[in-house]
Each structure stands twice: as C-alpha cells, then as structure tokens.
Specification:
Strand order of the largest sheet of chain B: 1-2-3-4-5-6-7-8
Radius of gyration of chain A: 19 Å
Number of domains of chain B: 2
Shape of chain B: globular
Oligomer: heterodimer
Largest sheet of chain B: 8 strands, antiparallel, barrel
Radius of gyration of chain B: 22 Å
Chain lengths: 187, 305
C-alpha cells in the first residue's frame, strides 16, 4: 500500500536536498558573476606581472598553466572514480592540482570582471563570458557537493568535474589560444 | 558525513579574490596633483627632447620637462604600465630610470639609488627626483607633441571610441560596427577634450592620468558615457576613402590596443560593417578588390560635409 513509496522517497530525499542546494548555489554564483560583470562599469585594473609584455599575456599564461593542472585533475579524478577506496596520495594529487588550478584563474577572473566586464561584441567574447560564469558556478556546485559527498548520487561529482574542466578548456580556447594564434606565442 | 575541506578550498578562493581586489584599490587610488598650480611656469618652458633608449617597444606618451631650478632636463616615456626616464644634468653620461605606472602615479628607480616619483595631471606631470647628485629636484614636464591614442568603449559597450591627439588637436572615430558611426574633430585644452562632428555629433572628455572619461554623442540625441585608455599601437583611428561600384565610399575603423577593431562602411546613404583591416599593413579587401587604409593623425581633417 503506502509503505512502498514511503520506503523509496526518504532515500531520494536524502540526496535531493544537498544536491539541489549545491546546484542552486552554483547557478546563483554564475548568475551573480554574469550580472555584476555586465552591470558594473569597467575600471582600470592593473595586472602588470613582471616579465609579461601585457596583462593579456599574463592572463593567457596563467590560464595555460591552470589548464595543465586541470588535466592532472581530470586524470586523477578519472582514477579516483575507478578505485573503490582511493589512495591518500591520489586524493591529495587530485585536491591540490585542483586547488592550484582554481587559484591560478582567480587573478584572471578579477581582471576579466573588474576591468573588462561581460562582453557581447563577438561570438568569441560572448562564449568566453558565458563560459566564465559557468566555470565558477560549476566549481562552487562541485565544492558544495563534496561537502556532502556521501549523500550524493555517484554521477554528481564526475559530471560537475567534467563541466568545470570542459568550461575551463573552452575559456582557454576563447582567450589564450585566440591570443597565441593571432598575436604569437610569447610572454 | 560533512566534509570541511571543500569549504576551506572555496573560502580560500574567495580570500585570494578579495586580496587581489584590495591590492588593486591600493595601487589604483588616484592621487591629488597638489603641485599643479605652483609648477606651471616650468611646464611651459621649452624642453629638450632626449631620445629614450631604455624603452624598447613603441612609446605612446612622451613627457619632457625640467627641474624647477633648471639643473636637470628630463624625458619620460610611458608605455602602458611601464615607464622610463632619462635625466640629463650636463654630465658626460645620462641617467636612465625605469619603473611602473599605477593610475596617475609613476614611480621609477635607477640602480644607483636615484628615484623619480611623478604624478600625471592632464597633459602635465609633476614630481620630484631624489638622490640625484646628492639632492632632490622638483620637476614638471609637459606631454610632448607626440601622437597619443585613447581607445575604449562606452560603458554599456554600445560603441567603440578611438581618439587620436596631436598636441592640442584631436580627431576621433566612434562607431558600433554596424549602423552608428561618427567622425569627430576638435581640441585638447589642458585636460579637457572637446570634439564635434556633423549632425550634432560630439565628444567631451577629461584626461585623467592615462585615461579619458567623458560623453560621446555619435548623432544628436544619442549619447553614451565612455572611458578610453592611453593605448599603444595598433590602437588608433584608421580610414579609407575609396570608390566602390561608382559610389564614393568612406570606411572608418576604431581599433583597441588588443587589436579588436570596429568599423563602418558608408557608401552613399548605406551603412554596413567594415571589412576586417589587416593591422600589419593597413590593407583590406572589399568585394574582391584590395585597398589600403591609413592611420589617422590627431591634426588631420576628418570632418568633411
């Protein structure tokens, strides 16, 4: 009678709430970043890193290094999901490659949002602006999902991790790759 | 089970972001140019231009001036966020300094302890040279008559603006890459920029440090606030006057320092997006034929009925 649905629904509710919270928080972050970038008046912001010819190149190289760590992230994440009990070293590699990658993108994010804003003047720029919002939204959703990892469906972390990785690759392709192919590869 | 690690990571990312924002408010804070009134007599003094060899790449603003007691002649070059200066006190060797520009503040040093602190105020720079010949020299310098390009966008990104100044004269091109475009011409008095064009078009701007802020009006009734930064080449205004299919055609481009270009082709009463301009040689292709565009100088006549 009613006992069967009652037995199923608590099991679903168990992860529905934390998952929903994480995803909505991610959406909120993406939306907030996009709105702020679009509405706030761009102001001069210095990202003059010694050794780079311009802030643009500093950003391109930061993103490129972040991509390298993101690939380590992807590879280690792939192996983490394959192992029933991931080794401590693999876990540490996965966490730290991700932490380094995300921190490397922060100065780039600040410069993009603060000095440039949400651009819509070309397909590349629109794609880059949207991907930027998606990237940090998915990152926040993934971090919040990790907090209650045991009460998440198994697919959540690989999917969110995949979105973070793919959006970062897209961000790099629409900025650093574009810069390197149009202006040359140098510092 | 609740884990704290991901929250710590998230918090750390936010903290790093806040540190970057906070650090920027420290370096980008505009400085009041208190020396502007007292130093003006020397700003107009004829200054000797010294070739600035310490700046390898394209210079896009050059200041020349003297110390208040006329002992030292100096030339200062600014290229983006980097600055360099040469000091000449009549000694056999010149002194070269290098440094950075943050907002309107310039800080330069040389290896032998000589320092230079300057503040940009409109087209003038005021500051002090320290530790040179055992003493300090207050100085003033005026932007030399060299071409400067200010390129930027309206705050809502509706139009791209490029202003080329040449001493007290300025020319500008504003467009949205499709239907809105205007050529503007006018003058620079101190830090005030005032340009006008046909059909009520105009631009009023204020030079502040390395940026220009103001209102641009591509045509009467259509005004946008804009900001433009002192920009290195290829930023600038480019134009081509050609005849296509028997129609006198004028094409204008406003190019930003990153190479982003927006242009409009005006053929008779028709307006459409300009073809991409090859910034390396100024060539472009329209309807299969190859043409050449030229870079517009600040003293050039661009507003013609």
């Amino acid at each position: 009678m009613t006992s069967q649905p009652a037995a199923v629904s608590p099991a679903r509710d168990q992860y529905a709430k934390p998952l929903l919270t994480a995803l909505l928080a991610g959406c909120a972050v993406a939306l907030a970043l996009g709105l702020y970038a679009k509405l706030h008046h761009p102001v001069p912001y210095a990202l003059d890193i010694r050794g780079f010819s311009s802030p643009l190149y500093a950003k391109a190289w930061l993103t490129t290094v972040a991509i390298v760590f993101a690939i380590v992230q992807l590879a280690s994440g792939w192996r983490v999901t394959r192992q029933p009990v991931p080794s401590a070293r693999l876990g540490a590699l996965h966490r730290w490659s991700g932490r380094i990658a995300i921190v490397l993108t922060v100065p780039v994010l600040i410069h993009c949002i603060y000095a440039l804003g949400f651009g819509t003047y070309s397909i590349r720029v629109i794609a880059h602006s949207v991907l930027g919002c998606v990237f940090y939204g998915a990152f926040v959703a993934k971090m919040l999902s990790l907090v209650r990892r045991d009460s998440m469906p198994r697919w959540v972390l690989p999917v969110l991790g995949g979105v973070v990785f793919v959006s970062l690759i897209g961000l790099w392709a629409t900025s650093a790759l574009w810069l390197f192919t149009t202006k040359g590869v140098h510092s | 089970m609740t884990r704290r690690g991901p929250l710590v990571t998230l918090g750390a990312v936010i903290v790093v972001a806040l540190i970057f924002l906070w650090a920027n408010t420290l370096v980008a804070k505009p400085h009041s140019a208190s020396a502007s009134a007292s130093a003006s007599p020397w700003a107009s003094a004829p200054a000797t231009l010294i070739p600035v060899s310490s700046v390898g790449t394209a210079v896009h603003a050059l200041y020349a001036g003297r110390s208040s007691g006329d002992q030292v002649t100096l030339a200062i070059a600014i290229n983006g966020r980097k600055a360099a200066a040469d000091l000449d006190a009549g000694l056999p060797s010149e002194v070269s300094l290098q440094g950075t520009v943050n907002g309107s503040q310039i800080t330069m040093t040389a290896s032998n302890g000589i320092g230079l602190d300057g503040s940009l105020s409109g087209v003038n720079m005021f500051g002090v040279i320290t530790g040179f010949l055992g003493q300090s020299f207050p100085f003033s310098a005026a932007q030399a008559v060299v071409e400067a390009v200010y390129a930027g966008r309206s705050s809502g990104n509706q139009v791209t603006v490029a202003v080329v100044t040449d001493g007290g004269q300025a020319a500008a091109y504003v467009c949205n890459g499709r239907t809105i475009e205007a050529w503007l011409q006018g003058s620079v008095h101190g830090s005030q920029v005032s340009l006008s064009g046909l059909h009520g078009a105009g631009l009023t701007g204020t030079l502040s440090g390395l940026a220009m802020f103001g209102i641009v009006t591509p045509s009467s009734g259509l005004s946008f606030p804009f900001s433009a930064e002192l920009s290195p080449r290829p930023a600038g205004v480019y134009q081509a006057r050609i005849v296509v299919n028997g129609l006198a055609t004028r094409i204008g481009w406003a190019v930003l320092p990153d190479g982003t270009q927006l242009g409009v082709t005006v053929a008779g009463t028709t307006r459409y997006a300009a073809p991409p301009l090859d910034l390396s040689d100024g060539s472009f292709t329209l309807d299969g034929a190859s043409y050449h565009a030229s870079s517009v100088a600040g003293n050039q006549t661009v507003v013609t009925p």
